[in-house]
Amino acid sequence: MSIHKEKTNKAHNEHIVENNELNLLEALIPVVFLMALLAYNIFGKEGVWLGDYSNQYILLIGGLIAAMVGFWNKTSINTMGAEIYENLKSVFIPIMILFLVGALAGTWLVSGIIPSMVYYGLQVLSPSIFLPASVIIAAIISIATGSSWTTSATVGIALIGIGTALGIPVGMIAGAVISGAYFGDKMSPLSDTTNLAPAMAGTDLFTHIKYMAFTTVPTISIALVIFTILSFTIDTTGSADIGGLLSTMDATFNITPWLFLVPLLVVVLIVLKTKPLIALGTGVVTAAIFAIIFQPEILAGLSDSHFGALTQAILTDTAIVTDNTTLNDLFTAGGMNGMLWTIFLIICAMVFGGIMDGIGALARITKALLSVATSVFGLFASTVASCIGLNVVASDQYLALVIPGKMFKQAYDDRGLAPENLSRTLEDSGTVTSVLIPWNTCGAYQSGVLGVGVGEYFIYAIFNWLSPIMTLMFAAFNFKIRKLIKG
User: Fold this and answer.
1) Among 97, 154, 152, 91, residue whose Cα is nearest residue 406
2) Is the dihedral of CA 417, 418, 419, 424 positive or negative?
3) pLDDT tens profile 79-98
4) Residue 78: domain span
């Protein structure tokens, strides 16, 4: 039986506990407290009220409040505990995948795979096609690293400097970089949000990515066409001097096209529907072998032995130091340790969601949502609105995926919709719109790093604001809306 079929059957068989003692107002109490605490953390304490793991602690506090509501409404601790256990059990594989994603990022760095992608990607630059080239370069780097933040902080900064020298408005450049970076962030198996969305919806990583391509590829294609047209309306001057970056990478790593065999192998395994743990594990092992073959000097600089260097790359932080500060930020990876923040968030979200399940709050809220969303399109629209609303209120893209994902999961199942419909909608509306809100962590970060205000790049971040529109269009025309496979 395939992973997709297992997940589909599991989603069909799952239930949300009913509690006739609980009314809608009581069901919303934990959510209101959760939103209030998140708002206080962001606006009052700058996101560090309870330390680096504030959001995780707040989810646990929300779970405690939900438990108190449950006790008031005659729900036993055994019922709540059973739902927490089922939730945690359901995310075991996604958590293992996240650990492998961290290992993959580390080994792809020390093997030279990521630097080679940067090296060859930068050479695509040409003043006459600078904007669409910027989208493509940012997309390539973001797919390779799984991080829109890293892409903007490295290649994005370089592109802003080059484009400004060419006389291109910074808002356009930033919009192109962000469009490409978030396309890559959505489609990369290395991305934490790309792993988080299917974990919340109840599907697997590669089913999610393939299904997301239906809305994501047309959206980025439209963005590329618009940026190409914009390029013809701008007078460009100067030259794109990237020689310094290329020479630094060439001096630091053994840059060779042979390194692309590793990501090619992973892609082939994905196409052949190999289990995600096997595909990603193969990517880690082959990258480690290529690191020994092609980058012995890099490994020697990290540890006294190749084994020690590779162990460090897989498990903990790795940094390749060059003489270029711009590249130093790109050539870092957190290994499995770098995934702990997201994994803890998933675990805490499962605790909160399990208690909300156990006390019957999700059933009560879902009924209220379904009374408003009387059609399939209404359900998709409600999901989009919830994700964008949480990006505005909670100011955190992770929570914009976690909370709607948990709340709407049963509603999609009740309508006979496969879980990848939900995971795709979460990403189309939650992941990408976070950067369009100035006070959201993503908006503040991108604006600060690129030195361009959200108001300046908003209209040019075409991929980001077009994505939720595209997913609603697919829903409105009932196009590529997958149904659950019964039995």
Assistant:
1) 91
2) negative
3) 999 989 988 887 888 888 88
4) 3-87+340-476
